[in-house]
Amino acid sequence: MNTFRVGITADVLQSDGTPIFGKAPLSLLEQPGVAWEIMDSDSSELTPAHVARYDAICAMLTRLTPASLSGPDIRLKLVARFGVGYDTIDVPACNAAGVWLTIAPDGVRRPVATSALTLMLMLAQKVLIKDRLTRSGRWSEKLDHMGTGLTGRTLGSIGIGNIGAELFRLARPLDMVAIAHDPAIDPAQAAAMGIRLVDMDTLFRESDFLTVNCPLNEHTHGLVDARKLALMKPGAYLINTARGPIVDEKALYAALASGRIAGAGLDVFEQEPTPKDNPILQLDNVVVTPHAICFTDECMRSLAESAFRAVIDVAQGRTPPYLVNPQARSARPA
User: pTM for this structure?
Assistant: First the structure.
């Protein structure tokens, strides 16, 4: 029996050399005929040599491009993403080469929803400003930084998918008004969750806290632009835990710096890592994290378990769940 070779991208390793998801999930790969290893390259892009060496690759942030699949030998059958977004993977190239792509929605549903909620609460309570006041002994200024109460405020979401729906569920006890824009969801389904569907402009006008919970693609790139930001209330906040390029960062900076909107919570940026001189980082009304706010033991363990189960499914001849491109199977040699 040929060994089913599994590569895990090196970007899962912490500074001490241990995987971010711990050792326990790796036991799922301890199956007859399966051999796994941490890939020996820290390249940001998979190479034809990787594609020729492995039957499955479990990828964190490493990219797969048409060039990755341009070599004469394509052994690769599966790319299993440690995450739910797949803008780092060229899906048409995978389709043409017969390479399946899986994601791990179960691993991010709760962690990313709680991350968006965390940023909302930090902004509403002005936690960063009050932290700075306390550290610098400026207690006399505390009355100058009144927070925003949540009862009766409007929580809006661009998208009610896996994460957006969980965010609304978690926020229900806060007695907020729930609105969203998502052309893919049935209004009756949204209503059953207590969410009112609205058009995009209404979403921007009415939201006190507007969260981004949609994938990055050709339709959403630059979706949050200057025109839409100008529709927002002066006291409103924007929260993005999805992908940076969904938001026009220059337009957002202008809205924040001018006081056109009250603030923002950003876990993602147009360029990552974002430059140290990014002017958004100098603003006091912005909470920022390095595309890692959801990184908890629970999140990383769940992502790894989902990816490794997909690997074993393919190794044992089963169709894995959470397939992005089931049609790729038709291009795979028999």
Answer: 0.90
Active-site residue, selected from the candidate residues 81, 110, 181, 243? 243
Catalytic status, residue 221: no
- Exactly one of 30, 37, 45, 272 is catalytic; name it: 272
Residue in 112, 181, 122, 115 with CA at minimum distance from that of residue 150: 122
Domain ranges of the chain: 4-106+297-331, 108-288
The fold adopted by the segment(s) 4-106+297-331 is: Rossmann fold (3.40.50)
**Quick check: 211 and 167 in contact, CB under 8 A?**
yes
Q: Please say if 291 is a catalytic residue.
A: yes
Among 196, 291, 301, 329, the active-site one is 291
Q: Quick check: helix, strand or coil at residue 237?
A: strand
Identify whether 5 is a catalytic site residue: no
Strand partners, 323: 102
- pLDDT digit string (tens) for 136-151? 999 999 999 999 999 9
CATH fold group of domain 108-288: Rossmann fold (3.40.50)
Q: State pLDDT tens for residues 278-322.
A: 999 999 999 999 999 999 999 999 999 999 999 999 999 999 999
